[in-house]
Amino acid sequence: MIEATLNTAQPQVDGKARLELCRHHFPLLRQRVNGKPLVYLDNAATSQKPQVVIDTIMRYYMEENSNIHRGVHYLSEKATEAYEGVRATVRQFLNAGDTREIIFVRGTTEAINLVAHSYGRVHVGKDDEVLISAMEHHSNIVPWQIVCEERGARLRVIPMNDAGELLVEEYEKLLTPRTKIVGLAHVSNALGTVNPVKTMVAMAHARGIPVLLDGAQAVPHMRVDVRDLDCDFYAFSGHKVFGPTGIGVLYGRESLLNAMPPYQSGGDMIKWVTFEKTVYNDLPYKFEAGTPSIAGGVGLGAAIEYLTKLDLDAIGLYEHDLLQYATARLSAVPRVRIVGTAREKAAVLSFTVEGIHPHDIGTILDLEGVAIRTGHHCAQPVMQRFGIPATARASFAFYNTKEDVDVLVKSVEKVIEVLG
Ligand code: C6P
Q: What pLDDT does residue 19 have?
């Protein structure tokens, strides 16, 4: 079906129109909410799933379901083949050097916890420092805080300006011999800022410091090449990239992963076990204890193949245009303030309306069929930095249109009309 849309659409329409045509691949988007056509603008929280992902998961359970890496029977071999095939798909998607560097996890949160608790516990010692940024999601703050507390180390924070851009010159000053690792969001979920991560990785590497990138909000919107970025770890979640929940990826540089102790332990992560000693499995299995989300993996593979066919460069251009349109239209509404006005932004529009609590905005928008997220977006320090309790956040995917933006703007105007 995707092929059909792309192939038949290509000769007549440009990339933008081609992406709009793909909206019909997402069955959930056809529904009405509160009697209004659904306008789904909560893609940063989780994205919707194309039919091909839903079908792939259903087919897996109907035809291939079995545990992996264990059985010699037909189904176990089929399921293992499917799951390991996805590892190869992810390797290619991220342009990693080897499938040994692709670790399947539950999501970005688990990926960062793995690095913090495995790499961090070994390399962060007393009086050392872990450096993160002022716009991190709690997932890239709390695991490091725990490690720092345990090891007697210090968490340092790269500041940002009022537009929501990191101060790179301050970052440079914070990179010291005490810095043991840097953790950075590629794209901020609360502000939409795209950070200059390639430059920041190079600056850390010049001092021998490894860098973890939180790619949760980047991977659905842009082409990511871990070898070009030269990062040491890269994390993302399947459910934000049009795949299922319960599956995500940690890319790790092989030399670092090899030297790291296991994070969780049990079945599958061992070569052999006696009561005296256990020999751990090779990469990537050393970090994959227990039965994983096999159906999740298979669904993620379908999502990545779908996204790759659509072309992430085209998606990036389309969403850039959409974000510009939404920013201009929403900024023109009296009392609206956009939070996060960085020069480089992706797909996220956080805003407040003077005198109206974001939760009230969200509730009234819901009555209009518009789904946005309101609150601190699991980035409370960002709210503290801007001196606000919360924002309303519209976040876009390639299946959103300018008509969706028009409904959003009209609904925000209605909020102001109703609540005064
Ligand atoms: N942000 C949002 O509405 P998980 O929950 O593990 O899939 O992803 C965590 C995470 C980590 N980093 C960033 C930058 C994120 O945006 C998220 C998830 C969602 O903004 C849910 S809080």
A: 81
